[in-house]
Amino acid sequence: MINSNKAQPVMVGEDGLPPGARGWAMLSLAIGVGMASLDTAIANTALPAIASELHTTPAASVWIVNVYQLAMVATLLPFSALGEIVGYRRVFISGMFLFTLASLACALAWSLPSLVVARLFQGVGASAMMSVNTALLRVLYPRHLQGRAFGNNSLVVAVAFAIGPTAASLILATASWPWLFAINVPLGVAGFFVARRMLPATRLSGHTMDARTALYNVGAFGLLILLFGDAAHHAPLTTLLPELVAVALFFVLLLRRQRGHQAPMLPIDLFRRPLFFLSSMTAICTFAAQGLAFVSLPFYFEVTLGRSPIETGFLMTPWAVLVAVMAPIAGRLSDRYSPGVLGGIGLAALATGLLTLVWIPANPSVVDIGWRMALCGIGFGFFQAPNLKAIMGSAPPQRGGGASGVVATSRLVGQATGAALVAYCFTVSASQGTTYALCLAAGFAALACIASFSRLVVARPATHS
């Protein structure tokens, strides 16, 4: 970790930062989260070009995406725990420094192995930023404006995912693939200096970092994502079974090691809070639904309907655009209304939109597809900010880092689950795989809707826990 204490941090009060300082601090968070989210989206689009220029196979090039996601999921909870110990500010700034340096290494990579190693470090840097991002938002804004803060954060993520494929296509049309990563360098440098100057210092816990617990966590979650990826790529049972056993072993070791700890890295203490547990389950199920839809729909558009990749990108756009539109609106509403109600309404809309995609006409027009995708985007966008507020609000202030880590982990685990289930659906039926995947997505969205409305029952007792 770099010594970020040399910069004089802004001190934060109980009501957050003053509006001017808050805006600059929010800008630094938006740069970090935006870069981390954008690099998830653009890498998928650029894989064919990268594989061709590096003279490698498409199957091998998938590691460019997989290693980034694996590094993020494996280190999110250790970084969130570290944030409570050394400060969220220091972890975020260090993550931005590493991410920027790794982006430069990606741009200078000369082979697939060098690029994969650089992407590994880039994923670690992204993880450090994402692990404490939500915790920092919680201290930047006063309580009555935190829904707005989470809505703005969801907007940044949605915009990054929405423009990712288009930005990648435009860059590849005018320049070579290293520029996909080089554009992060000036942004990262600017964000780094703004963060050092404007991010506030926060209260530190009296806990210490347990290296063995962190190692068990990395093994458990890293192997879990590897297992999902191998299952999605039809790895043999002789590969999947040992990975499954190793995942179970590491989780057992992790739970035994952190038993009795006041601030466990895998925050079992927070999951004992009904509101926190239901909100986390809502997030996992919703992102699984998103993963199922986002991975399966391009196959339907391109293989079944015969659309080009560019047309497919435009057909996917209404979902992302409506998420970006609805996120800040839902964030503002969550400052006045129950997250359980807002999230439940949004997830009911998402489930309905997914079912309308299942029942789409045989030869749909652009309008037929567009309004269904828009309905899904409205529902998904209406869920995010209220759910973020529910997760963070149900955790005590001193456990903000653990709660923030769960936010990011829930998203990535849900998306990985959805992607793996798509592969299973296409294994069951190549012709009906998309239909099965969308049915599963609607089912996950319905489960998330039930979990969200269930929070109305437990919310009052949870506030006194």
State the gist of this model.
With 465 residues, the protein is an all-alpha fold. The chain contains 17 helices and two strands.
Q: Beta fraction of the residues?
A: under 5%
- What general outline do the C-alpha atoms trace? globular
| Strand arrangement in the largest pleated sheet | 1-2
Number of contiguous helices = 17
Membrane topology: Multi-pass membrane protein
GO molecular function: transmembrane transporter activity
Pfam family, one: MFS_1
Subcellular location: Membrane
General description of the model:
It is found in: Membrane. The protein is mostly helical. It is 80% helix and 1% strand. The chain has three domains: 7-205, Growth Hormone, Chain: A (Up-down Bundle); 211-260; 266-465, Growth Hormone, Chain: A, CATH 1.20.1250. It contains 17 helices and two strands. Helix 3 (63-86) packs antiparallel against helix 9.
